[in-house]
Amino acid sequence: MKRLLVILFLLIKVKAVFAQSVFTDVNSLKNRADYYYQKLVYARAADLYAEALKKKKNIKDCDLNRKAAILFKKMSRYEEAKRCFENIQLSGHVLNSQDSIDYFNTLRAINDPKADTIFTKVHSRIVLNNLFRDSLYYNIFSLPFNTSGSEYCPAQLNKGMFYVTEEEDTSVVRKYNALNNGGFAHIYYSQKNDTGWSKSVKVSFDKENVLHIGPVAFYDSLKAIVNICVKGDQEPYRLELYSGEFDESLKKWKYLSPISINNAEYSIGHPAISTDGKQLFFVSDKQGGYGGTDIYMSLLKNGSWSEPANLGPKVNTKGDEKYPFLTDDNILFFSSDGKYGMGGLDIYYIDLLFKDSMVVNMGFPVNSNLDDFGFSYNKKAKTGYFSSNRKSNGDDDLYMYTENKVFFDLSIFDDFDKKELVDYTASLVDAELNIPIRCLPGSSPNSIKANLRPGHAYRLIIYKNDYKSDTLNISTYGNAAYTNKISKIIYLKRKHIYNASLQFKGEFSKENFSGALILINNLTEKTLDTLDNNTATATIKLDGDCEYIITSRNGDKLRYIYVERKSFRLTDLVPYYNLYLGAATPSILYVSIKECVTAKDMETSNIPEVTVWDWVNRNQFNITPGPEGDFQIVVMDDRLYDLFVDGKEVRLEGSEIVQNKYCIKYLHDSSRQLFRLKK
User: Fold this and answer.
1) Are 103 and 109 in contact (CB under 8 A)?
2) Interior angle at CA 275, CA 274 and CA 277, nearest 5
3) Cα–Cα distance between 320 and 292 in angstroms, integer?
4) How many CA atoms lie within 13 A of 98 on its CB side?
């Protein structure tokens, strides 16, 4: 049932006859299997593919083996899937990226050691070991609702437990889920009491033609979004989401009504919703996604759900992403088989609070070599729930876990007067996995706390204005007991702040210079501040224990103020610095070239070739003179240029020069320009 997104039911006694009549003239087992595959009758298609593969001529049929391998994996027929994937490779074909992951998951399912070899070709052995490192963190227990059939997607609300289970139809004309020949699902409910759990009862509903119902996501107490498949006029039938409410006294769904984003062209299911009921996550096989099924999000605006938005490649893969769950503090859990993980469907999470968060595999023992999915978390009880088919019988069972946490708390004081400090920023990360960790408010304004995992190393950085940041390394190696606690105190040192007076001048003219954007780079703390220089002077705050380099940015070009790129260290005195800048605006040099009188006896020349070499940027540009040989050159005050006419260097040390057959006249303020085109 965990694979159910598109549903087609079979009326076994009726449709078996229909199928036989349809294929009376069809000789190819492969074509018959393809027919059922396209109709989503996976169980029947898998049997026909298996029969087709017994024919020797089909062993090297790459297309047949690929379809059969994917289907066998879906049906948990892993040994057959393995043979098909290996047949593809033996026939000389290369597995594509998703086939490789499916092959890896197939090997994992049967504990084939080749799976580790494949994993370490993609990731390192360290990454593989990290998947098993948190075995001390979780305690796993089976829930008492498990039977010989499939139960999945447990969710606790108040003192009640909801879960989905498959039921066999005992009517004369029996209905089966054509994906796996199993029964269709319904939601069951059990109440917590003094002696354990009450006997589970099916949650009833007043709605006709319902083939499947579940899982469910609750918000605002007993309100819910329920996953339902209703028998319609056309097959295949699609999963849809309904809003409703749970009647706790009658154990019944009421007010069931479809939500606005249901679509006849594709399924939407596996709901997760925020506590205020305004942010909905769900799974869909709609076109335009990244793979099989993707996770989407929709927002409730003015009473209507927005157009579904794909969560993108950080979450979704070429495989299947399913069963999202959103915690009260905005952490999204989901299952995926599109990554190299423990095997099959693995449970992952991503902290939506952090923009740059990465997806994290929950690792062993929550994840196993088979399918693990349907996660939920009860914040009040501090326990998590999930479903898995990790047992050898292959049916889905319900599990609960508790966490072995290491409680961490930190108090922050001023190093000088030992007073409590507030209004600081704390950044906590898992130093080995580079995962951000939530910091929570402590018992007092100057303290924070966090729940850490045993066997991990963490890095905590505390920032506060006018104080030096401090880094604390925390290790929980050897801390496995639930009652273990780590308490730390940090004393932040005040910065030695100086008011630095800056005077900005042109580098060559030595005149006051304004209008530049100043970049102040703290080389010690690796921070960058900006300053708009509007008046040629400025006063800035600098830390006396840090080293700086100050630069000016002209447009998009970064140029150092000091030609030798000098840096400075502040002293105890209030410093005063003359900072010499290049021009923020260019100058224009006007030049005229014509034949000289003294060169009349020479042949009439062609239009001269003019080249200017920029020594700062180390490049040259050619200029075509206009009428009578006039042209312009745009120059910057802080650069050195060379001028070449017909390949000969021209040094403009005055306003006019005769060189060879040309008379070159510089038309600018010669009193300020001392050249070789240099100010």
Assistant:
1) no
2) 65
3) 5
4) 16
Helix axes 97-109, 114-122, angle to 10 degrees: 140
User: Lowest mean pLDDT: which of 347-356, 566-575, 654-663, 667-676?
Assistant: 667-676
pLDDT by residue (tens digit) across 246-263?
998 899 999 999 999 999
For 389, the 3-state DSSP assignment is coil
Gap between the Cα atoms of 99 and 505, Å rounded: 65
DSSP state, 378?
E
563-588 per-residue burial string, b: 16 or more CB within 10 A, e: under 16: eeeeeeebeeeebeeebbbbbbeeee
pLDDT in tens, 517-540: 777 877 777 778 888 777 778 877
Q: What is the DSSP string of 393-446?
A: T---EEEEEEE--EEEEEEEEETTT--B--S-EEEEEETTTTEEE--EE-SSTT
Assign 258 to helix, strand or coil. Answer: strand
Q: Which of 654, 608, 603 is nearest to 628 (CA)?
A: 608
Instruction: Output the CA angle 673-676-679, nearest 5 degrees.
Output: 35
* Total length of the chain: 679
Q: Is 343 left (phi over 0), alpha (psi -120 to 50) or beta?
A: left
Q: Contact, 401 vs 383, CB < 8 A?
A: yes
Distance CA 513, CA 495 (A): 31
Which two three-digit tokens encode residue 278? 């305004």
Rounded to whole angstroms, what are the CA distances from 560 to 295, 394, 533, 544, 649? 49, 68, 15, 21, 29
Distance CA 102, CA 96 (A): 10
CA-closest candidate to residue 412, choices 344, 466, 490, 340? 490
First-last CA distance in the chain: 81
Rounded to whole angstroms, the Cα distance separating 386 from 521 reads 50
Cβ pair 50, 71 in contact under 8 A: no
Q: What is the pLDDT of residues 631-652, one digit of tens each?
A: 777 666 555 677 788 777 776 6
